[in-house]
Amino acid sequence: MPPLTYVALENVSTSLGTRTLLSDVTVGITEGARIGVARGLFRSTVTARDIYLMIAAMGYFYLSNRYTLSAFLGERTDTPEAFARWEAFIIDAVRRAVAPPDVLPPRG
To answer: Using an 8 Å Cβ cutoff, are 55 and 63 in contact?
Structure first.
């Protein structure tokens, strides 16, 4: 019998709902990246895959580890204010990652 995580991943990878949702998300990100490149706001090397993985990784890590992070950092990381702060951080990080050096947004 395969490990449970493999079975779960196999089920996710064959789920029509998951594929549809991810397709919609990546189409939106692809279109946004295309427009951003055309306007000179994104580097030409930016891919929807990289943007999606960056957002997903940063969001998943924080959410799945919020209680451990609270203990480790000595502060609540599971409050609406903490989530809003982390969301703003992700948005800023993505903007900086995709922007050409000459149009980087100001820090803040």
So the answer is: no
Measured distance CA(63)–CA(56) in Å, rounded: 10
- Work out whether the CA dihedral 32, 34, 39, 45 comes out positive or negative: positive
Distance CA 104, CA 96 (A): 6
Number of independent structural domains in the chain: 1
Sorted by sequence, the CB contacts under 8 Å of residue 51 that are 6+ apart come out as 29, 33, 94, 97, 98
Question: Residue 71 is part of which domain span?
Answer: 15-101
| Tokens read off for 97 | 């990652």
pLDDT digits (tens, 9 = 90+) for 45-100: 988 889 999 999 999 999 999 999 999 999 999 999 999 999 999 999 999 999 99
